[in-house]
Amino acid sequence: MIDLYYWPTPNGHKITLFLEEAGLDYAIRPVNIGKGEQFAPEFLAISPNNKMPAIVDHAPADGGAPQSVFESGAILLYLAEKTGRFLPIEPRKRIETLEWLFWQMAGLGPMTGQYGHFNVYAPEKIPYAIERYTQEANRLLRVLDTRLQGRDFIAGSDYSIADMAAYPWIGVYDKAPIELAPYPEVRRWHATIAARPATQRAYAKAKEVGPDAGKPLSEEEKKVLFGRK
After folding, report:
1. What is the pLDDT of residues 135-185, one digit of tens each?
2. Of the chain's two ends, which shows fewer C-beta atoms within 10 Å, N or C?
3. Domains along the sequence of the chain with CATH
């Protein structure tokens, strides 16, 4: 059994995508980030950066005590190694997959997140910040679109943790959508993943856990998410 500390965000979706694809036994432990549950001492004990997702694996491969893992990329890598799935064994294919996993962690996620913050959540419109992160989000989409030319998935013909990491960060912000028409390969790839039964199950979990997720944030929620010291 794996305990998944989760809230319906792009980083949270990464882990339910893997767990549903792999058919692992897991239980969702909701962490309502709008209410500040990510700051609870018991959560900080497994995720000291006060971010979700995090997991606790009660049956780790070494047979020892439960293993906790925080950071979504580290969780995907841990689960791939635990199951032997969605990460190639062949060394060159493995490093290729990891390159794109870390590309998402260091680039697509943070830059798209900043795009969303300054376009949707910031208390004032800062033209420089909006332009800066809009340009960077589009640059990263061009990188991904180029990468997908002639490939079914990011690392080649097989679906991998690189795809699971990147997929939830495409088309995140309904109030400030990024135009995807210039990126036909991204649109084709995204539609393919969206049609997978495991993807549909993963996103159904999101609606069960946080039916109000994605709705406008209250001032108190904004304070918790963006202003807590």
Report:
1. 999 999 999 999 999 999 999 999 999 999 999 999 999 889 999 999 999
2. C
3. 2-85+200-226 (3.40.30.10), 91-195 (1.20.1050.10)
